[in-house]
Specification:
Largest sheet: 8 strands, antiparallel
Low-confidence stretches: 1-21, 364-368
Oligomer: single chain
Radius of gyration: 20 Å
Strand content: 15-25%
Number of helices: 11
Shape: globular
Helix content: 25-40%
Mean pLDDT: 89
Order of helices and strands: HHEEEEEHHHHHEEEEHHEEEEEEHH
Length: about 375
C-alpha cells in the first residue's frame, strides 16, 4: 500500500557528488526525510513535495503520495498545489513594487483606497495591513469559516468585516489577519490600474519565468493540479469545498509548484524583484510577536523572522482546505526549503526538520 502512495524523484547536483562526503550527506538527508514522513505524520499518509535549493540551485526534490486518490495518480515534483498564505509574500512584494514606481506609499491611509471608508479605518495605514497590525478583525473571526463555500463578490467578502469595530489601535500589536491582505488586493488593483491577479502575472511571475504559478477559480481546469484531502476516522476524504468565485490576495486561490517557489525566493533574495530598500523592508523587523505559538519572533512583510543562537530563519506557512504549505529561507547558507502538501497535515515540523539538517537551529546541527 505504501508503495502505491509514494512516487519519488531525487535530484542532487553533480557538484555535490564531487566529494564522497557530500553524497553521503545527501543520502542521509533523503533517508531522514523518508523516515520523518513515515513516522511523524499520523492520521493519514503525507502527500506532497519536499524540495531544497542552495544559492538558487536545486539540492533535492522528493515527491510522496497521491495527487488524485480517485484515479490513483501519484504526486510528482511538477504537481501543482494551492499554496494558501504563501501568497502573502507575493502581495507584499507587489505593494512594495508599486511604491517603487510611485503609485502608492505604505504610509498611505487605507481610506484613500476604500470608498466609502468606515470611520474606524481612518487611522489605518497600508503598512498596518502588511504587518497584521491594523486592528481590523480577521475574516475568520466574523464567521467566514462557516460559510466559505458560498459564492461572493469582493465587496461581499469585505462587507463581512467592514462594519466591525477595530480590535485594538493600529500598530499596537500583531494579530494574524487575512482581512488586511484581502484589502491589499483591492489596493493593488486601484494603484496598478488592472486586476491584482494580472499585475502579479505581468510584474512578478512572467519576468521570472514562473509558468507554473497562477490563480484557480471554481470552473477552470488546471493541468497537473492536485486535489485536496482531509481525514476522517482514519480514512482519506475529500476536503471541504471552498468557493473561489473571487480570488483574494490573502491566498485562497493561488497555486504553484515547489520549483517555481524556489525560483521565486532566490530571485527575491538576490534583488531581481525589489530594490534594496524594499527588500530590506520585506525581510526587516516591523513588529514583534508577544504571544501565541510564534511569541518572540518578528514579522516583516509576508515573512516571519526567528533568531536562535546567532542564526536567522525566515519562514511562512499556508493553509486552505485540503492543502498545506511551508517555506523556510536560511540567509546564512542561502538555503531554501519548500514543503507543499495536498493533505491537511501540519507540514511545519517537516520543513523545520529539513532546515535543521542545514544548520538551523545551530544546536541541532552541532548535535548531528
Amino acid at each position: 500500500m505504501r508503495n502505491r502512495w509514494c512516487g519519488w524523484l531525487v535530484m542532487v547536483l553533480a557538484m555535490m557528488f564531487a566529494r564522497p562526503a557530500a553524497a553521503q550527506d545527501s543520502a542521509r538527508l533523503v533517508a531522514e526525510i523518508d523516515r520523518f514522513v513515515r513516522d511523524s505524520m499520523p492520521g493519514m499518509p503525507f502527500s506532497g513535495v519536499v524540495a531544497v535549493s542552495r544559492a538558487g540551485q536545486p539540492v533535492l526534490a522528493r515527491a510522496y503520495g497521491t495527487a488524485h486518490y480517485e484515479a490513483s495518480v501519484p504526486v510528482t515534483v511538477e504537481t501543482r498545489f494551492l499554496i494558501g498564505s504563501l501568497q502573502k509574500q507575493f502581495t507584499s512584494a507587489a505593494v512594495l513594487l508599486l511604491q517603487e514606481r510611485g503609485r502608492l506609499s505604505v504610509d498611505d491611509p487605507l481610506c484613500r483606497y476604500v470608498e466609502p471608508c468606515p470611520a474606524a479605518w481612518e487611522p489605518v495605514r497600508l503598512r498596518h495591513l502588511l504587518t497584521h497590525s491594523s486592528g481590523i478583525p480577521d475574516i475568520f473571526a466574523v464567521g467566514f469559516g462557516q460559510t466559505r463555500m458560498l459564492p461572493r463578490s469582493h465587496d461581499e467578502i469585505v462587507a463581512l468585516f467592514r462594519d466591525q469595530p477595530l480590535q485594538y489601535a493600529p500598530g499596537e500589536r500583531f494579530r494574524y489577519n487575512n482581512s488586511g491582505f484581502i484589502l491589499l488586493g483591492q489596493i493593488i488593483s486601484r494603484a496598478a490600474g488592472m486586476p491584482w491577479t494580472q499585475f502579479m502575472r505581468d510584474s512578478l511571475f512572467a519576468p521570472l519565468g514562473m509558468r507554473n504559478t497562477g490563480f484557480a477559480d471554481n470552473a477552470e481546469v488546471v493541468a497537473g493540479m492536485a486535489s485536496g484531502y482531509s481525514a476522517r476516522a482514519g480514512k482519506v476524504i475529500r476536503a471541504q469545498f471552498e468557493d473561489r468565485t473571487t480570488a483574494t490576495a490573502d491566498g485562497n486561490s493561488t497555486w504553484s509548484t515547489a520549483g517555481d517557489l524556489l525560483v521565486w525566493v532566490h530571485a527575491l533574495r538576490s534583488g531581481r524583484v525589489l530594490a534594496p530598500a524594499s527588500l530590506a523592508a520585506m525581510f526587516g523587523t516591523h513588529i514583534r510577536l508577544d504571544s501565541g505559538a510564534r511569541a518572540g519572533q518578528e514579522y516583516g512583510h509576508g515573512w516571519y523572522t526567528q533568531r536562535t543562537g546567532g542564526a536567522t530563519m525566515f519562514s511562512h506557512g499556508g493553509v486552505v482546505p485540503g492543502f498545506r504549505s511551508y517555506a523556510i529561507h536560511l540567509p546564512a547558507s542561502d538555503v531554501t526549503v519548500m514543503v507543499l502538501s495536498n493533505s491537511e497535515l501540519d507540514v511545519r515540523p517537516l520543513a523545520e526538520r529539513v532546515a535543521a539538517a542545514f544548520g538551523f537551529p545551530p544546536s541541532s546541527a552541532q548535535g548531528r
